[in-house]
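Throughout this chapter, every protein is written as a compact record of paired, labelled lines. An example of such a record is reproduced below:
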Amino acid sequence: MGTSKLIELIAIAALGGLSSILANKGIAVFNDGLRPIVPEFLEKKIGKKELAATSFALSFGLVIGFGIPVSIGASILLVHSILLMTDIIGSWAPEGKKGMIISGVIGAVYGVGLVLGLQAVVDAFAMMPVNFIDSLSQVGAPVVISFSIFPAVAIASQHGFKKGSISFIATLLTLFIVKQFGTFNLGNGTKLTLSAEGMSLLVGMIFMIYYAVQVKSDGSNSNESLVSVFLERVNRIKKNWIWLSVMGGLVSAATSLLLIAGDPISLNLLSEGKMSEAALAAFARGIGFIPLVFSTAIVTGVYSPAGTTFVFVVGILLKGNPLLAFVVGALVMFIEVQLLTLMAKALDKFPGIREMGEHIRTAMNKVLEVALLIGGAMASESIAPGIGYFWVIGLLLLNRKAKKPVVDLAVGPIAAITLGILVNILNLIGLFTPVVAG
């Protein structure tokens, strides 16, 4: 094995191992939909089983149905195929030092295994009697778009239906306009595409902050004496700045070695040797991710292992120089964490902003409950047409009558996973034949 190959394997092992540990400790997860759920577990509102099942259902289908297939055919891995799986590994591993070790080891082995045997992973799942993995990816399908809705829900909760409706319409119009007109041709065949979800979320957040700052102080110093919801969450991220900085450095280093890419567009450009175009595409994507990553981080106290994804830009610009990329990537992640703190302090100067924190968390959970239930129903119906909706609705209503019910948040994902396992068992004993489209 050559020195360069050894360096690549060490880099990917470190990336997989550390990201799994961060997920296990509840410091950072890659899946935006999982981020608001982690604090629910840390505060013992949901159990380890619900967290693990939700993480699996949100991420696994995307790993097998999106991350790995996009990576096949190129010598570069789409980062989703690694960091979504390390979310799962960290969520499933037990708590404490034992869990950290297990997460780190399995995450590192997975990263190396992915580099060495990418196609074998896809072939292994194709051998299942009934392939429900592709269908499972639908569980998380409504989550990304539904995130844009939570500011309007939070506004309605805090300021009333009328203001919530105005915000909802503004968010909807932004989503429509950016989807229709958000692609710009930059020449040389390079296109800049704005994230419709990210931009609509940004508009919703602007409305939410605007209404919150209108709330006048009662003249007391209660704001100063109370511990801020936002600052408390951000301080949790700040406390882990070393972990996060090292993680950012590893992402940049792996990108500079052309091991990973942050999105399919830059991946394809990198595979064609178009470095400047790839950097531009990655930069544009980072701008679109700022509202989503920052808003979820401030509210939940959980960050992303790739931050706002600017660490990929660093890696591309410093191609072939992993050590320098590591240092600069770590610095970029550190700066992001500091900006979070400044933003939280600025927001905390207004009483309406402080009160907004709990409304946001409630709104996020409500939106996720609905999105995951719809996603679970879509996935279940795809796995077993004509039975899926029956299965999900039945489990949801029966669960509410159970002595120890599973939280509604986890019903959709658990229903899809259990149905997928069930139809495979029934197929093996000759009682279920998958419906083939066409």
